[in-house]
Input
Amino acid sequence: MKRKGPKPVKRKLLNSYFVSTLSITLLLFLTGLLGYMVFNAKYINDYVRENIGFSLVLDENVRDVDLLKLQKLLAARPEVKSATYVDAETAAQQLEQELGEDFIGFLGYNPLHASIDIKLYAPYTQNDSLVNLEQKFMEYTNVEEVYYQRNLVHLINENTNKIGFILLALGVIMLLIFIALINNTIRLSIYSKRFLINTMQLVGATRSFIRKPFVSKSVIQGLTGALLANVALFGVFSSFNANFSEMVSYATTEVMIPVFGLVFILGALISWLSTRFAVNKFLRLRYDELFN
Output
């Protein structure tokens, strides 16, 4: 029976390169998902804030001319994202759908007044800003009352601030863990070539000459992993956006571009730094220390 020879060195190198690239790809993919969560948290936060109901109840005898003028004045304010007129009949229909009962038939008349529903930009939905805006809106002629769910707004502001801080802290911790794992993957790859580095030193190669091919190959490997990670991330983002388009479709492009850029930068930068430090470490070791 013919005895099998050792596995070719070339195949071993290819397998090592494939495994390390795959490891870097998976870690960069997780980094991209983490970045997506952190970046997208702002848009989800803004989405929730900008859909807080804010109604200006109008005087019963307001004229159409005054109503149109008031609506234009409100829409022109820098804090206002949209100003929509809701007549008394439409308001009654909406309330009837919410209650599930015909309250007009019970009362015999419609007690609701026409109103203008206001949606604010997210930066102006803080508690202090809303109090100031409420006072300013009350100064308009034909505005009888300014209504919004104060307790709900306070609860949203408190929770979004807490969630944002926790998510940011978690993101920083996880990013440091991913960077450490990528660094260890590259260091292990360089460790397997420590005798080659020492041999090149023995034949008189300079440190920069030895370091250059390792660094170049590692950066290409990091960029390859980043490209593969971004392809996978694009698939995940597209699927997520298709299923939750009403919430995040408007923010997808703004989120994906910085996340893809972050993955490419981290892939190249971490690979360059880790390889440089690892090669320098083995360049300083004596031959007998390479066995430790």
